[in-house]
Amino acid sequence: MAAYRTRLRELDEALECDEIDLKKLKQLCFNGIPDEQGRRALCWKLLLNYLPTTRKTWSETLARKRLLYKQFIDEMIITPGSCCQENDGSRVDVTFADHPLNLNPDSQWQTFFKDNEVLLQIDKDVRRLCPDISFFQQATDFPCHEVVQSSGIKRLHKRVQHTILKSANVERKGIGVTKIALSVKKAQEDYAPMPEGSEAHWEVVERILFLYAKLNPGQGYVQGMNEIIGPIYYTFARDPDLSWREHAEADCFFCFTNLMGEIRDFFIKSLDEAECGISGMMGKLGDTLRANDHQVWSRLQQQELRPQYYSFRWLTLLLSQEFHLPDVLRIWDSLFADEKRFGFLIHICCSMIILLRDQLLKGDFPANVKLLQNFPSSDIQGVLSKAAELAGRGPADC
Description:
By secondary structure, the protein is mostly helical. It is 54% helix and 2% strand. It has 20 helices and two strands. A two-stranded antiparallel sheet has the order 1-2. A hairpin with a 5-residue loop joins strand 1 and strand 2. Helix 4 crosses helix 12 and helix 13 packs across helix 14. The longest helix has 19 residues. It is globular and about 65 Å long.
């Protein structure tokens, strides 16, 4: 307990400095960030390069970013056929010289229909987010007034209520094992939307992902991104400081965007075989396992049980589907604080395999692939301590 209080004091002192020493903060956060008083949310904003290290610039940075996000909502979440306002205050009909059957690629209606194809997948995914907890089904204390008071015009889920996706499948095909790799637990029932005037947390996440897809057309939305954004939004939207929690949506958008900027290669099919792509990461995992437990590595090689069969989801989704949410948050403390930026992820995955060595050495191929694809409930501290040992670091002890 005394050591815990000492670490709390050190972390608070680091966060209160006028100029935050990011290297020192990473060292403190690597061993786990206490969740009390919004410390995790604040540290993640720094570790994901959303907040600058100079405290006096925070107010200006936050005001600018949050205003920009509001502009994204105003400009990108609108139904063609509704009226919009010109700079001189006059009202114009955006369907002037445009209509739903217009085949011009610059038509707002064509854009609307294409957006809806992606939105339908987002809507389906966010309605199943973190089914083990009720948080995402609950109402947010800070709904977006521009949306919930728009008479339904900007409610994204209403755009796809009666739509069936008939064109291109927006799932990532990757290396051909996506359906195995991205099979996730499903809620018994999809989450229901809130009535006009309020909105559930999953509706907020849907809006963030839709805006991200609109602003990143080269990548768009890929199934699984909902599992990446979920823990970030959950952390920010539960900040006990209302002044931070009120802006959880905008802050989450920019932190998620920054994180995707670092791991987006995992989601881009054309980069699968590149060193920075998912195949390169799986190759590193195999090499790390061979160097640290040659017997287990040999066993999996003999069975032709390749990392592709089980680690695609581990790596792509940063282990968000292998552990319960509190453990995922603890894992991400170390991943975000990793100086090598997700190099420690390889060591965690290797640790997970080594901790199953007895079962793997005894099991046949079907038993082992099932075991690795459904990683059993484990003590997260044991997993992280072993990973820190493999990485040559001190124990991850919080």
